[in-house]
Amino acid sequence: MNPLSMQADIISQQEMEAIVNGTYDTSVLKQKGYMLDEQKEKMLYRKAYLAFLDTHDSSEVQIFFVPWYACNFACSYCYQSGYDNKGTVTPEIIDAFFSYITTHITKPKYITLFGGEPLLDSPHARKIISYFIEKANQHSLHLAIVTNGYTLSSYIDILKKATIREIQVTLDGTEDVHNARRFTKTKTPTFDAIVTGIDTALKHNIPINLRVVVDAQNINDLPNLAQFAIDKGWTNNPLFKTQIGRNYELHYCQADNAKLYDRASLYEKIYELIIQHPHILQFHKPAFSISKFLFEQGAMPNPLFDACPGCKTEWAFDYTGKIYPCTAMVGKKGEEVGTYYPTVSLNTTVIEEWEKRDVTSIPQCQQCSLSLLCGGGCAAVAKNKHGNILQSDCRPVDTLLSMGLSLYFEKEIGNYHAKSCNNQKSM
Q1: 368 shares a domain with 223
Q2: 7-25: per-residue pLDDT in tens?
Q3: 395 and 275 in one domain?
Q4: 206 shares a domain with 101
Q5: Chain-centre distance for alpha carbon 89
């Protein structure tokens, strides 16, 4: 596999041994871009990087807005538990936010309401969200919402007035497993209310992105949750999609780190579960780096020079008037990069550091053969670990590829069947 020449081939063990021993026909390797002279490689790299910059410059921007950090849940793994959740947004601050983004962010954009919990059950919250939607409509901006889903069904009439791109809702398993992790501050179970909210949203043609946050305490319930979603008919609805989020150490969370997976061990566990329970793929098809892309598209993706959207295709704003690089940093004291209210101010030095972060500016990425499949990882995680965003958050790309190629191409789990294309034939 070569992400720069965008070639991938499945080869036999014998062919691999011949390549290693130097007895393979090198003309084939040269023709397909696996063997390049240094000058040609530099030219390809520069051309691909310039194309990446052009795409980045025209990419849509996701703008997160936090109207408050207050939440009606007391989840066992909340990474915002140490945040100051006092205060709330006002119409004046909302007006300042829309004024800023329409003036300073001129690229195509959409807004994601975030929290805390943006859909709180109070007259004030409903009035504020209604006003926010009114302003978004005035500026012809689409909305997405990240919510725990507990009040979703009661908000439908308000949300129907917006152009909703998607609503992200979290279920951490079937009823008993979910309720043991995600409960209200008064210890009220939340599973049934969230399921009702998902059903209601889909009934009103509002797209749902169901997120499952997994760790060692709930991962074994994934087959049951998948079956639940299948039985509900969600997985057959084109407005329904899923994602699996890894519960990991970030900011103020995780008193018990023993329950956490690193990225490789998590996907090893998911791989094992899918082998035992193939129906999981009807619920969620893990990417396993670019394995899923290779299988479904029959071609390599473009080289990934940057996996971090912060200060490039993502910004985050909160009700205090502060601006942050991304959703992983929003609300964390000391990570703000500017203000939009009551006055506009930007820390251009810090912003420029975020803007320049890609594999060309991270020392660890310079000689890494996997850098154009990894993109340097998450800057927030890198800073959390190393104190500097210009460090790598390395992804176990080779491990993920091994599992993904095995799952999708070799084992042909579920309804998957191997297919060939020009870029994926045995040499």
Answers
A1: no
A2: 999 889 999 999 999 999 9
A3: no
A4: yes
A5: 26
Domain containing 382 equals 358-420
The alpha-helical segments, DSSP class H, found in 180-278 are 191-203, 222-232, 263-276
Task: List all residues 6 or more positions away from 85 whose beta carbon is below 8 Å from its beta carbon.
Answer: 68, 69, 70, 71, 116
The residue among 240, 255, 286 that closes a domain is: 286
**Is pTM, for the whole model, over 0.85?**
yes
Q: Note whether residue 145 is domain-resident.
A: yes
Q: Quick one: 167 and 253 in the same domain?
A: yes
Torsion of Cα atoms, 146 then 148 then 150 then 153, to 10°? 30
Residue in the block written with tokens 């995680």: 381
3-state secondary structure of 2: strand
Cβ burial, residue 38 (10 Å; 0-12/13-18/19+): exposed
List pLDDT tens digits, range 107-147: 999 999 999 999 999 999 999 999 999 999 999 999 999 99
Q: How many CB atoms lie within 10 A of CB 87?
A: 13
Q: Do residues 336 and 354 touch, judged by C-beta distance below 8 A?
A: no
- Of 286, 306, 326, the residue at which a domain comes to its end is 286
